[in-house]
From TrEMBL:
Keywords: Cell membrane, Membrane, Transmembrane, Transmembrane helix. It is found in: Cell membrane. This is L-lysine exporter family protein LysE/ArgO. It is a multi-pass membrane protein. It comes from the Bacteria. One of its GO terms (molecular function) is amino acid transmembrane transporter activity. One of its GO terms (cellular component) is plasma membrane. Signal peptide: none annotated. It comes from Stackebrandtia albiflava. The keyword Membrane applies. InterPro entries: LeuE-type.
Amino acid sequence: MSVSFFTGLAFGLGLIIPIGAQNILVFSQGLALGMPRALWTVLATACCDTLLILAGALGANALLTQVPGLQAVLLAAGAVLLTYLGVKSLRAKVVHTDAAEAAITNPRQVITKAVAASLFNPHAIIDTVGILGAAIAAQSVAGRATFTMGTISASWLWFLMLAAAAAAMRHVLTPRRRVWFDRVSGVILCGFAASFAVEFVRMW
């Protein structure tokens, strides 16, 4: 492996590890479903990140600054989506494990939620397309491909590790404790939604 690959891997991990909607979703699904069922969320989230990274590598980051109103639309959509997810988490109730799993194991629903949290999340788009796109462009021509592969590998590695860690904890946490985790997650998601709304207002 080249130095540029590991540089991209480290850079990607540095951007993806801080708490965000994607991490909360992957962790909660790993906690609720365990492995290997949480792999649906890992697969969908990592695939979305891969698409965004490739878009940034191909120069789509220029759209974020050149298309009028695009960032405002992303912020508004993100605020609405995260408010919905946050309120849903805040309203979580204690449910027996079998019933909880039956309610969320539909792959289509799991994938839809993961895609929404990735592609309608303005910070994920700005970080992945904007910041990573600029970082890729700053690499030498010879190192861009391997740097890009490193950043993509970071997403897959991190989401897989996060889901696996949550799955390892699921037998330790009782249903009541999981509800409190959901509620804390809801507060965080609503906080992100509020920050997006504030940024949206400041743009006008």
